Structures are given as structure tokens and as C-alpha cells.
Amino acid sequence: MNPLEHQLQYPFNDTLPAAGTSIEVAPGIRWVRLPLPFALDHINVWLLRDTYDGRDGWTVVDCGVARDEVMGMWEQVFANELDGLPVVRVIVTHMHPDHIGLAHWLTEKWTAPLQMTMTDFVVAQLYCGADSAGGGERLARHFQRHGMTQLEDLEGVRKRKSYYSQLVPKVPSSFIRIVDNDIVPIGGHDWQVIIGYGHAPEHASFYSRSLNVVISGDMVLPRISTNVSVNSEEPQGNALQDYLDSLSRYADVPDDALTLPSHGRPFVGIHTRIQQQHDHHAEHLARVLKVCAEPKSAFDIVPVLFRRKLDLHQMTFALGESIAHLHMLMYSGKVKRITGDDGVIRFQAV
């Protein structure tokens, strides 16, 4: 546990649900942990006891990636953790593969509807068939403009063109839209939708005042910082500013609410964690600004923000996040953008 984690409370201590099992974290809410094939090796998904459209059963929040071992783990959950009841609805917080990857399988298997934001539904459909979202020629060109010039690195990015579609082979053909401040009834409790930006196009979190529980998705995580990247589809984006501004939308959530994050353990202290995120990024922005006394590309900035060795998968997130920090400084007038004769974009303090 790092020093910042000591400022949070973990009601379940180090207890984690075993593979294919669940832990009840609040009345009618069960925690399931599914594996991921990355350094970040798990995602938390949530089972909420519900009656939907006249059917008694469970609403599932988030799905895991489309891999055989994950589907096998879900089958264990279906057999042992649902009290003999069906899945009646699937809710997805956002379009990243670990969240929406198996939405098509779950909705088809249980004849259950999908509920999510429109932007993330449409982007997920686009990414399933596009050269984007984690690899391919467009992302390679984007990274090359920001200083990734080693041919081996660029070729590795190009080869990842099927990254998204391998983990999300299909998206349901229809959905039920949710928008900011919607009230979604689940299991006799009203859940307020909190929309956030910067991490995903239109990320949805959910807060129940009667249960004092917030399902934060990836917007507020207890141990790691939420990835905030400028991607090739929106190369001029100000994702970090969008993310930090979005955190103010949790102002009405009490600090003693139980926060259910997509990664890490359930915790109490959401406003403490949000302040930690503001402090973390303020420190990083100051460090980047200092380094930019001389012109620096985003690729130059990666080791300033990430001091450990990164594999290619991690580098795609790190470089996107470096661009996000530089863009926030640029849009606030603290650095200027310069395109060199080599075609590489660099940033210099003004």
C-alpha cells in the first residue's frame, strides 16, 4: 500500500473474490473480479439484484474482454452466484474493451438489453471495424508526429491494428441510452448517472443515495491514476482538462460513500482520492512545464511522467497521456506548439 492509499479506507481489507465467485459489498450488490491479459490484470464487474421489464434477476455492470477464459469464468458465476436467476440487463460504463468486450455475448445469451451512453456505443461500433483504438497506421502517424521515431516502435504500433476488435469482436446492434443526471432504477433504488470526460468519450458512473454507493467505473480509481490520453481520432483534444473538470461532478457524493471502482478494491474516501488526482496532475504539469524550458516532444516527456520501463502496450497509454499534459499546458497558454522541419511536434514554455 502506497502512502496515498493509507488516506483511504478499505472496508473489505485485502479480501478479493476468488475466480468465478462473488462477494456481497452492499445489499443486493455483488463484486466479481475478471482477468485481463495486461499488466493491469483484472477488472471489477458488479451484479445488482433487480427486476427489469417484469423479469426478476440481475443487472450486470461491465463485462470483461472477449476471451475464452473470461467467458468460462462468467459461466461459473451464472451457475453459482445468481441464485438461479437470469441476467435481465447489461449496463456498460464506457467503450473500453475490458468494459464492453463481452456485452454482445451477455445480451445475446440472456436476451437482455444493453444500456450505456450514445457516444460510447457509437464509438465502440466504429472501433470494431476501424484502424484505430490501440494500433494501426493512423495511430502510428499520430505517435510519429509526437516524437516516436524508432522504426521498430512504429511497426509495433502498426501491427496492433486489430487490438480493439480482438477484445471486442462485436457490439450489440441496439441499446438504451443514458445521459447525465438520468435516474436509472435498479432493484428498488434510484441510481443517478454522472457523466465524465477525458478517459472515454462519455463515461457513465452511477450513484445511489439510498445505498450510499457509487459505481465509479474508471473515473475514480483507488491505487492507479485514470489514464487520460489524446488519441489519433481527436488529435487536438484537451483530455486532461476535460477529465479534471469532470471530477467536480462528484461533488454531491458524500465522502463516506462506498466507491466501487473498475480496478482495485472498493474504498471509502472518494473526495480524498479526487483531491489526490488533482494534486498528482498539478505536480506532473509543473514537472513537464519545467522540462519544456527547451522544446520537447511528447515522446521526450514520457520518462518525465513514467519512470519505470514500459512495454509497447503501456507506451501507447503513456504517450497519449504525455500529449494530454502538453495540450493542457498549451491551451492554458503556458507552452507553445512548434512543428520542426522533421515533422515532429514539440512544445516550449512561453
Summing up helix and strand content along with how strands pair, one would put the structural category as alpha/beta
Percentage beta strand: 15-25%
Q: Topology as H/E string?
A: EEEEHEHHEHHHHEEEEEHEEHHHEE
| Helical coverage, percent range | 25-40%
Radius of gyration: 20 Å
Q: Mean pLDDT, as a whole number?
A: 96
Strand order of the largest sheet: 1-2-3-4-5-6-7
Shape: globular
Largest sheet: 7 strands, mixed
Q: In whole angstroms, how far apart are the ends?
A: 39 Å
Number of H- or I-type helical stretches: 11
Identify low-pLDDT runs: none
Give the beta-strand count.
15
Describe this structure in words.
It is a single chain. The protein is α/β, with parallel strands linked by helices and 350 residues long. The protein is built from eleven helices and 15 strands. The strands form three sheets. The protein has a seven-stranded mixed β-sheet. It has a six-stranded mixed β-sheet with strand order 8-9-10-11-12-13. A two-stranded antiparallel ribbon has the order 14-15. Strand 10 and strand 11 (213-217) form a beta hairpin. Helix 5 runs antiparallel to helix 6 and helix 10 (298-305) crosses helix 11 (312-331). The protein starts with 22 loop residues before the first strand and ends with a strand.
